[in-house]
Design brief:
about 450 residues, alpha+beta, Alpha-Beta Plaits, 5 domains, eight-stranded antiparallel β-sheet, five-stranded antiparallel β-sheet, 19 strands, binds flavin-adenine dinucleotide
């Protein structure tokens, strides 16, 4: 079958208005938020049902052409960058909330529903969808499942896999399967295997999302520190004290400059780093827990400890944190965000190393971190038109991630491996571990039809 024939077949299956094949339209889908590597796809399709997804997958399989699922394209590791001669299956038109069952604390949603759309739909019910990536206003729940997304509040509530009761999926041969939603000890828990598989095992077409009861009360503070070292020592001590805040986020001076320019947060100029700490749970005992946390911070000489007094003040603090990456546009025309993890006790060390690596490669790096999880997000500022700078940023990125591995951590906490970190998989895992992953992939998708060249290139190609 020629490319023209395939496109004709896709148009017949989905209607012409749901298939793009003109280069000027395809260019929009040549990358995700990892913009330093791009490939123009053969076609882009917008199915509206699992049956249509299956038809597309089968047509592409007959044509010998790989497919990649795409949600909102906010991924930061090149997970939905099209494979060569690949077809992009965009799930954003499958965007209905199909059912909300509060008594079962569960919602059934299509993959293109935005994360915040579900939480907004639950407003006033006393429930919410707990995974809250900073991109939650734009990222899809299908994308959250595929990347096993985290967020500030996953420190206490866990990443996306903990909030998925079941999935409907399309496999590489076009079959439609359902895993869950009822917990069944007789079955293998395949929904959990698909979570975090970055579109390489199956295309998610429905999600039974677990809903979380809103906490009775919460306390949110912002503490400033004279150095990133002090701030990260405070994080390490809070965790070591056995306290599990709902969120424990760090921002350094570099990112604060961008946030100040964007939102006028009012952080004192002398602050080198800020922690945003949120505690939640039953009202009783929350204030004494807060005092304990503040006392631990005081061991590291915080400059100012400010408590949000109203929901509006709390919202402003979270807006500044969640919009921080967007504010980076005030510092440079482009950026690359890293996503390393280290044991929390190694946070001071990794921040020191990030500074050294930035100086060595002459790249400006600013930092945000889901610090309570040991998850660092150094943001490397670049301008893609400057090839030398981009190459130095890539080299610095790699060195940061290698350092995370050396510390006993990982190359990703939540953004996934994508194409960006594929070369590091061999550094992180033993050959036997990689072979086991490869065999699981083969069981789901023997022809490597789904998103080839992502996550485990070294064993699949
Ligand atoms: C400003 C900003 C802040 C961010 N903050 C966070 C954060 O706090 N935490 C976090 O975890 N991430 C964060 N991210 C990264 C990103 O938003 C998440 O990875 C998100 O889950 C991706 O969702 P998406 O809909 O954009 O997926 P896409 O980028 O479209 O796809 C991501 C991966 O999932 C696969 N995929 C998408 N949909 C499906 C599907 N239905 N079935 C199978 N595979 C699929 C794709 O093939 C790809 O491999 C941030 C990104 C940005 C730009």
């Amino acid at each position: 079958m020629s490319n023209t024939e395939l496109i004709r077949k896709l148009r017949a299956a989905l209607k012409p208005e749901n298939v793009l094949s003109v280069p000027s339209e395809l260019v929009v889908y040549d990358c995700d938020a990892f913009t330093v590597e791009r490939h123009i796809p053969l076609a882009v399709v917008f199915p509206r049902s699992a049956v249509q997804v299956a038809e597309v997958v089968r047509a592409c399989s007959d044509h010998g052409c790989p497919v990649v699922a795409r949600g909102a394209g906010t991924g930061l590791a090149g997970g939905c960058t099209p494979p060569p001669n690949g077809v992009v299956i965009v799930l954003t038109r499958m965007n209905k909330i199909l059912d909300i069952r509060l008594r079962d604390a569960m919602a059934l949603v299509e993959p293109g529903v935005l994360n915040l759309q579900l939480t907004n739909a639950l407003s006033g019910t006393g429930y919410h969808f707990a995974p809250d990536p900073s991109s939650q206003g734009t990222a899809t729940i299908g994308g959250n499942v595929a990347t096993n997304a985290g967020g500030p509040h996953t420190l206490k509530y866990g990443v996306t896999v903990n909030h998925v009761a079941g999935l409907e999926v399309v496999l590489g041969d076009g079959s439609i399967l359902q895993f869950g939603p009822v917990e069944d000890p007789a079955a293998l828990d395949l929904a959990r295997v698909v979570c975090g598989s970055e579109g390489t095992l199956a295309i998610v077409t429905k999600i039974w999302a677990k809903l979380t009861k809103n906490p009775q009360a919460c306390r949110t503070i912002r503490a400033t520190f004279a150095s990133i070292d002090d701030a990260s020592q405070a994080v390490s001590q809070i965790i070591a004290a056995g306290i599990v805040p709902a969120a424990l986020e760090l921002m350094d001076r570099g990112i604060l400059d961008a946030v100040e320019a964007a939102f006028a947060l009012g952080v004192p100029p002398e602050a080198a780093a800020v922690l945003i700490i949120e505690l939640d749970g039953p009202e009783a005992g929350l204030d004494s827990l807060l005092e304990q946390v503040i006392a631990l911070c005081r061991n590291w000489n915080p400059g100012e400890v400010l408590q949000a007094k109203t929901p509006a003040e709390r919202e402003l603090l979270w807006k500044c944190r969640k919009m921080a990456v967007g504010a980076v546009g005030r510092l440079s025309p482009g950026y690359m965000i890293q996503d390393g993890v280290v044991p929390r006790t190694r946070l001071p060390h990794i921040f020191r190393r990030i500074l050294e690596i930035a100086a060595k490669h002459r790249v400006r790096i600013v930092n945000v971190a889901h610090a309570g999880d040991g998850n660092v997000h150094p943001i490397l500022l670049l301008d893609e038109r400057d090839r030398d700078l981009t190459a130095r940023a890539k080299a610095a990125s790699r060195e940061v991630l290698e350092e995370c591995i050396t510390c006993g951590g990982s190359i990703t906490a939540e953004h996934g491996v994508g194409i960006e970190k594929i070369e590091l998989m061999e550094k992180l895992f033993a050959p036997a571990d990689l072979r086991a992953m490869h065999r699981v992939r083969q069981a789901f998708d023997p022809a490597s039809q789904l998103n080839p060249g992502k996550k485990y290139k070294t064993i699949c190609q």
